[in-house]
Amino acid sequence: MKVNVHAVNFNVDRKLIGYVQERLDKLEKYYDKVVNSDVFFKLENTSDKENKIAEIKIIVPGDEFIVKKQCKTFEEAVELAADSMERLLMRRKEKVRTYS
To answer: For each successive 10 residues of the chain (100 residues), what is the average pLDDT?
Structure first.
């Protein structure tokens, strides 16, 4: 699956891009009809340590899923968002199975 990584107002390290690609590739075993996936990284301007936001957007035929998580590190945010996305994709797969 091709993953597009977008960083708002900063540059992303290659290790982080590799981690995101590897983690989102695991989502294909839950739902294999993913058309497109985008990951957006943002930094919130607060003094709080949990200021890193990862937003995952996955497009499947007929629907679009967006999950947004905020944590201390981008890796942790991606992990939590990917876990939520797994549940959404499994629900979508069950829904498609029952209607077909």
So the answer is: 91 94 92 92 89 95 94 96 95 87
Q: Residues 29, 65: contact at Cβ < 8 Å?
A: no
Q: How many domains does the chain have?
A: 1
Q: What is the CATH number of the domain that holds 20?
A: 3.30.160.100
CB 65 within 8 A of CB 44: no
Question: How far apart (Å, rounded) are the C-alpha atoms in residues 77 and 59?
Answer: 20
C-alpha torsion sign, points 87, 91, 94, 100 = negative
Residue 54: give the domain boundaries.
3-99
CA distances from 9 to 17, 37, 45, 52, 53 (A): 16, 20, 12, 13, 13
* Distance in angstroms between the alpha carbons of the first and the last residue of the chain: 25
- DSSP label at 23? H
pTM of the model: 0.91
